[in-house]
Amino acid sequence: MKALIAMIERSLALAPTTSRLISSGHVTRMVTAIFLLALGLIFITRGVTEPERLALTVVLGICFFAYGGFGLLQALRLRKNGDCS
After folding, report:
1. What's the pLDDT tens digit per position in 42-79?
2. pLDDT tens digits for 20-35?
3. pTM value?
């Protein structure tokens, strides 16, 4: 019984840290999504403006941009629903 009480007390002591980690996870998701969107735009722009017009660069850019948009929508949806705050 003492072990159970000690485990509950440790859990209560860690609650503020857990909340802070969950909140920082939201920021990390948002920053990652924005980074992927920017990276996608860079690849698309580079692929279109280069004289050789590298199709692979444009395709990679579209993939990065699409995944970044998906990540941003997920992060916003989770934040709106309160799943991560």
Report:
1. 999 999 888 887 889 999 999 999 999 999 999 888 87
2. 666 677 788 999 999 9
3. 0.67
- Please report whether residue 18 resides in a domain: no
Domain that holds residue 36: 23-81
Structural domain count, the chain: 1
User: Is 67 contained in some domain?
Assistant: yes
Q: DSSP assignment, residue 83? A: S
Could you say which DSSP state residue 84 is in?
A: -
Rounded Cα–Cα distance for residues 12 and 61 (Å): 46
The Cα 64–Cα 36 span in angstroms is 6
> How far is the C-alpha of 52 from the C-alpha of 58, rounded, in Å?
12
For residue 57, the tally of other CB atoms under 10 A from its CB is 18
DSSP 20-71: HHHHHHHHHHHHHHHHHHHHHHHHHHHHHHSTT--HHHHHHHHHHHHHHHHH
